[in-house]
Write a structure and sequence with these properties.
The structure holds 2 protein chains of 2 kinds. By secondary structure, chain A is α+β, with helices and mostly antiparallel strands. Chain A has 2 domains: 183 residues, no CATH class; 201 residues, no CATH class. Chain A contains 14 helices and 11 strands. In chain A, the strands form 2 sheets. In chain A, strands 3-4-9-6-8-7 form a 6-stranded mixed β-barrel. A 4-stranded antiparallel sheet of chain A has the order 2-10-1-11. The radius of gyration of chain A is 33 Å and the shape is elongated. The two termini of chain A are 29 Å apart. By secondary structure, chain B is an alpha/beta fold. Chain B has one domain: Rossmann fold (3-Layer(aba) Sandwich), CATH 3.40.50. Classes of the chains: A alpha+beta, B alpha/beta. The interface between A and B is medium-sized, with 24 and 27 residues.
Chain lengths: 395, 244
């Protein structure tokens, strides 16, 4: 009987192709939006996860707390590094300063970030020099006037190449001439640092020649990957809390907290947008109800004939209900295809990995079919209740 | 219940049907008693407003009376639900309408097979039986056509095939020649007579004396009551000059 009704439904659609298509548009858009948004959200989350995995699970950033005028500011000092290194799970704690400066090389200049670096950065950030080398232990001890440039910064200052071995000037109160010993390979953001437009100088060089900051503005901690970096991050927080009695003395960012925050944002956004898309499904459903009511009225005589030859009310009910469900179900299938295609295109344009949840597609499709049942029930019941005599004499 | 029921195919006693029109109650049938025996071919005649359509709807189990009893093939129908009435129509009654009432998007074959769908007959068997029924009414070579591709007479033959498909106890025809020219109408009446001669009871609602003349008996209604009933031959003399 169901097969029969599905066949009848397609016969009736074939007679009204344009109208059928138009009445499905709402459902197609609704399902496509749900599928596209969830797929986009999942892909964005996956992209974040992969970036974090690439930047290393063992990196923990310790920044100054928000009340910059308070105790936390005085708290951050060079000497805290060995204390941090005593915390379980911490392999190395590196004090870091950074500031925005103007670089000049020949006629080119650029304003970008200069960061104090230690050789310990290399394993942590997976740093690779495209040309030359990164900073060495010797650069540090000798306070060498050397610098390593991120890929974009090097390209800005040396548009025709040849950065390694050349010199650049850091402008400011104590202008300095630094020799470029390496240019880094292109790399995306890691832990909030944009490596491509950053210049790295040995920390000792920075402190003696470029600036004399009172205290480091962050610590980069290398955690023992085998000892649950998230727990290590917690212990660092506790360390600062014990030191100050304030919970916001330091902001500790580990890959897992970053991931949590970012995927929290993505999830909220996905939920919100899915809600918006769900509204369009309801609107689509109302469109279906409307077209089904029109269809029942138009086919009053057909209903009368079917009743005359012995169709009981239930058969008429299921015929029109199946028709509504086939309509929304087909729209749902189209919607899944359109949504998957659109999100694939968007995700690939942003070069994220494409992740689509079959469960989300299945749910979106089931909801579309359910929309057919919900919004098809009233028109179908109306068809089933038609008086055979009145239906037969309907013009 | 009875394929073997030997009593009248239609038995009505004191049949009443009233309609509410606004505040007013209009009596379309005011106590009609009829008896149509198995194998009969009966015409129901009368001017418009006489109640003949109402009577046809009650005999056809498309409607329920507001008073009285009606038995179709031995089954009491006056208090039945819509579902039960549908079953009675499907099992014991075949309809033929003035305007054919075929579904335009289905082929003649599918149209003729339609009643079997609701009887739960498997699709293949349905189409086989429909093909046989169409063959029997002379449309064996037209089964794939749609109603719109056929002439009026052919459409009415297809409708008759549909009415016959469930081997009903009763065929109810409402002005079956009303939309046809005279020659075609004659041929359709001949077909009905053939069917009747093979044993199927037929009731025709008509205002055309020529149609009534081809029936064995006639029931004449006026103002919701039976005016006359009896063998058609008896009426033939008085039928002359009878107008709507």
């Amino acid at each position: 009987m169901i097969n029969e009704n599905i066949r009848t439904a397609f016969q009736s659609f074939a007679g009204n192709k344009l109208r059928t298509l138009l009445s499905m548009v709402g459902i197609v858009i609704g399902v496509a939006s749900v599928v596209a948004i969830t797929a986009y959200g999942a892909s964005a989350s996956e992209s974040i996860k992969r970036q974090i995995a690439k930047s290393g699970l063992e990196t923990i950033m310790v920044m100054m707390g928000r009340d910059a005028g308070g105790e936390s500011l005085r708290l951050f000092k060079e000497e805290l590094a060995p204390e941090l290194e005593e915390i379980e799970g911490v392999l190395q704690a590196m004090p870091v300063n950074q500031r925005s400066v103007t670089f000049r090389a020949g006629k080119q200049s650029a304003t970008d970030t200069i960061v104090t670096a230690l050789p310990g950065f290399v394993p942590l950030f997976d740093i690779e020099a495209a040309e030359g080398r990164f900073l060495s232990e010797a650069d540090l001890t000798e306070r060498s006037p050397v610098v390593v440039l991120g890929a974009e910064l090097a390209a800005t200052l040396f548009p025709s190449g040849g950065a390694v071995g050349s010199y650049l000037r850091v402008l400011g109160q104590n202008p300095q001439q630094l020799r470029i010993v390496g240019v880094l390979a292109k790399k995306s953001d890691a832990m909030g640092m944009n490596f491509d437009s950053t210049a790295f100088v040995p920390r000792t060089t920075y402190l003696t020649r470029i600036a004399r900051p009172a205290r480091p503005d962050r610590f980069i901690v290398r955690a023992d990957g085998s000892k649950d970096p998230a727990a290590t991050a917690k212990r660092i927080e506790t360390f600062f809390f014990d030191l100050t009695g304030k919970s916001n003395a330091a902001r500790v960012m580990s890959p897992s907290t970053v991931a949590e925050t970012l995927s929290g944002v993505t999830d909220t956004l996905t939920t919100f947008l899915t809600g918006v898309a769900a509204i369009s499904l309801v609107v689509g459903g109302i469109g279906i109800m409307n077209i089904m009511l029109v269809s029942v009225t138009e086919r009053t005589r057909e209903i009368g004939i079917r009743k005359a030859v012995g169709a009981p009310p239930r058969a008429i009910l299921s015929q029109f209900l199946v028709e509504a469900v086939v309509l929304t179900g087909t729209g749902g299938l189209l919607g899944v295809a359109v949504g998957a295609g659109a999100s694939y295109a968007a995700v690939k344009a942003l070069s994220y990995p494409f992740v689509i949840s079959p469960a989300a597609c299945a749910v979106a499709w089931l909801v579309s079919a359910g929309t057919g049942i919900f919004f098809g029930l009233y028109p179908a019941a109306r068809a089933a209740r038609l008086d055979p005599v009145a239906a037969l004499s309907y013009e | 219940m009875s394929a073997e029921w030997a009593g009248p195919v239609v038995l009505a006693e004191g049949l009443e049907r009233s309609y509410e029109v606004g505040e007013e109650k209009v009596l379309a049938l005011r106590g009609v008693s009829i008896r149509i025996e198995r194998g009969d071919m009966t015409a129901i005649m009368g001017p418009s407003g006489s109640g003949k359509s109402t009577l046809m709807h009650l005999i056809g189990c498309l409607d329920s009376p507001t008073g009285g009893r009606i038995l179709i093939d031995g089954v009491e129908a006056q208090d039945m639900s819509q579902t039960e009435l549908a079953r009675l129509r499907r099992e014991r009654i075949g309809f033929v309408f003035q305007t054919f009432n075929l579904l335009p998007r289905l082929s003649i074959l599918e149209n003729a097979a339609l009643p079997l769908r609701y009887a739960g007959v498997p699709n293949r068997l349905r189409l086989e039986r429909a093909a046989a029924a169409l063959e029997a009414v002379g449309l064996g070579d037209r089964t794939r056509h749609r109603p719109g591709q056929l002439s009026g007479g052919q459409r009415q033959r297809a409708a008759i095939a549909r009415a016959l498909i469930n081997e009903p106890a009763l065929i109810l025809a409402d002005e079956p020649t009303g939309a046809l020219d005279q020659t075609t109408g004659r041929a359709i009446l001949d077909l009905f007579r053939d069917i009747n001669e093979r044993g199927t009871t037929i009731v025709m609602v008509t205002h055309d004396p020529a149609v009534a003349a081809s029936c064995r008996s006639t029931i004449r209604l006026r103002d919701g009551l039976i005016e006359e009933a009896g063998p058609t031959a008896f009426f033939e003399a008085t039928a002359e000059g009878d107008s709507e």
